[in-house]
Amino acid sequence: MTKKFTEEEYQKITEIADLYFDQQKLMVATFNLKNIYHYISYNEIVESEKARELSQELALIALPKSRDWAHEQFVDKEKKYYWSSKESFDGRFKVLIKNSDGYPMDAFYESPINSDGFTELEVREACYNPDMFDKEEVE
User: Fold this and answer.
1) Residue 31: inside a domain, yes or no?
2) DSSP secondary structure letter of residue 118
3) CB-based contacts of 103, cutoff 8 Å, min separation 6
4) Taking the CB of the first residue and of the last residue of the chain, which one, N or C, has fewer CB atoms within 10 A?
């Protein structure tokens, strides 16, 4: 099994790479890649051992021209889950459903239902605490 980066690590790598490339457009790319690698390792954005083992993959993610391809190859696909509250509120369960924009929002039901699937990252970005919910993997 190939070791991969998480979506969160991927986002941080690309954010840092874009900052370096924007700041130093006239510099040679290898110089920027070295700085990006050191910054990521030093700030423990990715575990140092993982960054060392996957340094070529990290470079391919950092480079804008290979980024999309590298994302498909070296980033774990996040699983989607159905989310319902662990506790009931006045006999009703909070379930995360999609709002009109496609983002998670809560609704109350008499029993937990499987409505819309969301990744853990989507749940966190919508300001919900995943630990407050039971989750069931979407198949």
Assistant:
1) yes
2) B
3) 122, 126
4) N
